[in-house]
Amino acid sequence: MSNPFAAIVSLYALATERLRKEEDGATAVEYGLMVGLIAVAIIAVVGFLGDDLAALFQTVRDELP
Hints:
It comes from Trujillonella endophytica. This protein has 65 residues and is mainly α.
């Protein structure tokens, strides 16, 4: 399986390169790709840090009066 971070970085690089080439700006498809990539990155981070985040929130909740 390929590295998901590398795929995200390469897709982002392709989108930004296309934005630089066109004078009219980004199309709806490019905006959709960027939003999708951001969503994938957020899901990946929450997936990797999910248990740590749950423990952190539990600690904060326990400390509240």
